[in-house]
Amino acid sequence: MSEPIRLSKRLIEQVGCSRREAELFIEGGWVSVDGVVIDEPQFKVTTQQVTLDPDAKASAPEPITLLLHHDPQLSIEQALQSLGAQTLAQEHSYGKRALKGHFLRLSCGAPLEAGASGLQVFTQDWKILRKLTDDMAKIEQEYVVEVSGDMTEHGLNRLTHGATYKGRPLPAVKASWQNETRLRFALKNPTPGLLGQLCASVGLSVVSVRRIRIGGVSMGKLPMGQWRYMTAKEKF
Q1: Which DSSP string do the residues of 149-172 spell out, in sequence order?
Q2: Which domains are assigned to the chain?
Q3: CA separation for the pair 134, 131 (Å, rounded)
Q4: Most buried residue among 37, 73, 116, 167 by CB atoms closer than 10 A?
Q5: Nearest CA to 38 among 50, 29, 49, 51?
Q6: Following CA atoms 82, 87, 89, 94 in sequence, which dihedral angle do they give, to the nearest 10 degrees?
Q7: What is the greatest pairwise CA distance in the chain?
């Protein structure tokens, strides 16, 4: 019986690469063991068949950004812990390799207010994180708000031109009915509670809040609690 050795060591022996190259090949998802992709250099192998993808590149993986349909019952920390291959939306899993490295060193950009669901962004890319931090006041967000009650007369017009709440002026927003109980809002960098104040200013109560878009990035038809990769074509 062969003694178990690290996958990285087996790869070095097999293809004659350096230790660092072996680690990059494995962490990049280019190495399979008996047909199963393994992305942990310390994984132990004995007599299994180790295969290096012919297109393998010994380079550090590009930083990724994950888009999650956030469950409002979870905190940001709990949502982060829920990310994994098992919660990747099936519709978006084809041609993708959910590697363990994709779930390390993730930061939350543009956190949702407490109790809200919808688009939550987790990224490894410092450029995206800086964009969502420095330019957030300039980026339009879109929300669907479930409401109850009866809107006051000319309520949509008041929201569009700037309503008041308890004598305080509120910012003008784009507002429209999605259906009989849901309002769609488009606005920039809403402070926590602002959507509730906007609704209250026209006689409505908020039942639930769901963010569906940040800038040019939409959540799409993600089931609650599932995520997808942000594509290279999408921009905040």
Answers
A1: E-PPTTHHHHHHH--EETTEE---
A2: 5-52 (3.10.290.10), 65-136+216-229 (3.30.70), 140-214 (3.30.70.1560)
A3: 5
A4: 116
A5: 29
A6: 130
A7: 82
pTM comes to 0.82
Element at 68 (helix H, strand E): strand 65-70
Closest CA to 14 of 48, 43, 37, 42: 48
User: What is the C-alpha to C-alpha distance for residues 75 and 143, in angstroms, rounded to an integer?
Assistant: 19
Q: Which residue has the tokens 């104040």?
A: 197
* 146-181 confidence digits (pLDDT tens): 999 999 999 999 999 988 999 899 999 999 999 999
pLDDT confidence of 115, banded at 50, 70, 90? very high
